[in-house]
């Protein structure tokens, strides 16, 4: 009996452990699902059902369908007409694998997600190029000819622009003729079809979401090129200063001028001033697909002239600062001597570097979740439209409003505070680094050989202790003041741009003078505060 009790107890423990592991697996899967939805919500758009294109958790499963396509061209046109109640966000859109194109010798259709009486799987629907017009009942066909679905004609070609099908306002004559012969209603042919989608794709909120999504996708490149490589090069630079201090100023000047000259020559090649025509030297004369417009050539010429001026200024400046370089060389020798004696100064910058790296990783993760934390809600619209509902089996005029991601004011305030906190934390870590380095150099300078055996590492550790015990509050308030001034400058610049966009008339001279003077004054205050803070830390 005791054995049976023990076996029962062990079995209960095993079941409990398995249950806990199952819960842990479910929680981790939910976390991955949340992160996936966050990134998808920033990258892809919504269909007329409120599903995120490319999501596995939609109805239906859209994990292969990541391109948004507007089915009714007349709704797209009407949403671009002034004083019209229809918005593009309320136009019927579905998710496809790629943007459809008109047939060369007939008429293609793009039909709604198969459901109800249309007994096709999503895979079969995709394999049929989203066209099941031949399976429609007479009522469904009549509804489709009235542009009420479930199938809509492909009249305009479209291309994938940032995961949305951008219509090209050039209707296919063959497809349009077949549509008219079938008895379809009139389809508006106007450049507004192109401009309306273009305006929505390039709105400020869409561009900002794409930037944040690109950061989330390109984090390996950012870590390598923006993190590890600069760290490696900075350590190499410190070692070169340590052992080649007299030659380093001259090497720096020569490398800088060589870089400017190389970039200028590259622009000369791109502009066609070093070669037969633009891009010939880069691509080759036999490439038949190279077509450079006059505007692009003029832009390249202007950029080449600007780089020529920069090259001349850089070369003349290098000649003018030769005497200053000669004066600065002894100072650099003293700095190299300090680095040689206080060897921990070479290793110490790695500490704030990794602190900022860890902070930025958490900050970017929080940024992704903040920008994708809006709720998918149905729009409040007064649109009069009807579309065929496959589930109901009839034309429905009640669900005309589309879906959008709505953000509460609290999320906007959280995003602003999040951006401000990032700049403040960055300034705080930089200020702490400056204080520790200044304290280490001061300890070395005043030691005068008395505790030379403790100098290499103890001075840096002692300086860090003094920072944590005595100076942390001063560093925090100094970085906060600098961050506040920078934030005021940022807000004023945003207000200036918004007022410039609102005011359709030409900006007055007084407005320009006021904006420029305020920016100049705040820039001077910011520079003064940074200088005072740096000297105060030292």
UniProtKB/TrEMBL annotation:
<feature type="transmembrane region" description="Helical">
    <location>
        <begin position="342"/>
        <end position="363"/>
    </location>
</feature>
<dbReference type="GO" id="GO:0022857">
    <property type="term" value="F:transmembrane transporter activity"/>
</dbReference>
<keyword id="KW-1133">Transmembrane helix</keyword>
<keyword id="KW-0812">Transmembrane</keyword>
<dbReference type="Pfam" id="PF04515">
    <property type="entry name" value="Choline_transpo"/>
</dbReference>
<feature type="transmembrane region" description="Helical">
    <location>
        <begin position="300"/>
        <end position="322"/>
    </location>
</feature>
<feature type="transmembrane region" description="Helical">
    <location>
        <begin position="467"/>
        <end position="492"/>
    </location>
</feature>
<keyword id="KW-0325">Glycoprotein</keyword>
<feature type="transmembrane region" description="Helical">
    <location>
        <begin position="428"/>
        <end position="447"/>
    </location>
</feature>
<comment type="similarity">
    <text>Belongs to the CTL (choline transporter-like) family.</text>
</comment>
<keyword id="KW-0472">Membrane</keyword>
<feature type="transmembrane region" description="Helical">
    <location>
        <begin position="247"/>
        <end position="269"/>
    </location>
</feature>
<protein>
    <recommendedName>
        <fullName>Choline transporter-like protein</fullName>
    </recommendedName>
</protein>
<dbReference type="GO" id="GO:0005886">
    <property type="term" value="C:plasma membrane"/>
</dbReference>
<comment type="function">
    <text>Choline transporter.</text>
</comment>
<dbReference type="InterPro" id="IPR007603">
    <property type="entry name" value="Choline_transptr-like"/>
</dbReference>
<feature type="transmembrane region" description="Helical">
    <location>
        <begin position="219"/>
        <end position="240"/>
    </location>
</feature>
């Amino acid at each position: 009996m005791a054995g049976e009790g023990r076996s029962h107890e062990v079995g209960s423990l095993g079941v409990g452990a398995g249950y806990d592991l199952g819960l842990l697996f479910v929680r981790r899967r939910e976390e991955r699902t949340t992160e996936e939805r966050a990134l998808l919500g920033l990258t892809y758009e919504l269909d007329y059902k409120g599903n995120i294109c490319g999501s596995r958790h939609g109805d239906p499963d859209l994990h292969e369908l990541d391109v948004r396509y507007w089915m009714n061209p007349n709704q797209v046109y009407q949403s671009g007409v002034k004083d019209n109640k229809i918005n593009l966000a309320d136009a019927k859109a579905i998710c496809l694998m790629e943007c459809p194109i008109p047939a060369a010798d007939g008429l293609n259709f793009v039909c709604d997600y198969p459901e109800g009486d249309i007994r096709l799987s999503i895979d079969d629907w995709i394999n049929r190029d989203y066209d099941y017009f031949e399976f429609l009942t007479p009522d469904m066909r009549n509804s489709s000819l009235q542009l009420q679905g479930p199938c809509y004609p492909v009249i305009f070609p479209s291309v994938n622009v940032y995961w949305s099908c951008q219509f090209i306002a050039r209707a296919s004559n063959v497809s349009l003729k077949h549509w008219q012969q079938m008895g379809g209603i009139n389809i508006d042919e106007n450049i507004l079809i192109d401009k309306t989608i273009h305006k929505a794709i390039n709105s400020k909120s869409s561009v900002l979401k794409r930037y944040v999504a690109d950061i989330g996708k390109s984090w390996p490149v950012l870590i390598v090129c923006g993190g590890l490589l600069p760290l490696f090069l900075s350590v190499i630079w410190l070692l070169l200063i340590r052992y080649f201090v007299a030659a380093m100023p001259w090497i720096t000047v020569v490398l800088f001028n060589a870089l400017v000259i190389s970039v200028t020559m590259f622009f000369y090649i791109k502009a066609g001033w070093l070669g037969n025509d633009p891009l010939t030297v880069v691509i080759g004369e036999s490439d038949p697909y190279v077509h450079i417009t006059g505007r692009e050539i003029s832009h390249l010429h202007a950029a080449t002239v600007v780089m020529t001026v920069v090259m001349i200024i850089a070369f003349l400046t290098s000649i003018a600062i030769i005497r200053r370089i000669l004066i600065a060389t002894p100072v650099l020798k003293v700095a190299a001597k300090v680095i040689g004696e206080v060897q921990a100064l070479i290793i110490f910058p790695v500490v704030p570097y990794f602190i900022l790296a860890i902070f930025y990783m958490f900050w970017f993760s929080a940024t992704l979740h903040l920008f994708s934390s809006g709720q998918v809600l149905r729009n409040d619209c007064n649109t009069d439209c009807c579309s065929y509902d496959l589930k109901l089996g009839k034309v429905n005029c009640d669900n005309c409003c589309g879906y959008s991601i709505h953000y509460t004011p609290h999320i906007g305030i959280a995003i602003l505070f999040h951006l401000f906190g990032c700049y403040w934390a960055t300034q705080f870590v930089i200020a702490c680094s400056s204080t520790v380095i200044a304290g280490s150099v001061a300890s070395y300078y005043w030691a005068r050989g008395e505790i030379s055996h403790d100098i290499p590492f103890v001075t840096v550790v002692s300086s860090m202790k003094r920072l944590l015990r005595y100076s942390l509050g001063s560093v925090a308030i100094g970085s906060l003041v600098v961050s506040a001034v920078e934030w005021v400058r940022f807000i004023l610049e945003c207000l200036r741009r918004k007022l410039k966009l609102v005011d359709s008339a030409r900006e007055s001279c007084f407005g320009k003078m006021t904006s420029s003077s305020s920016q100049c004054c705040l820039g001077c205050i910011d520079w003064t505060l940074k200088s005072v803070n740096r000297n105060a830390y030292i």
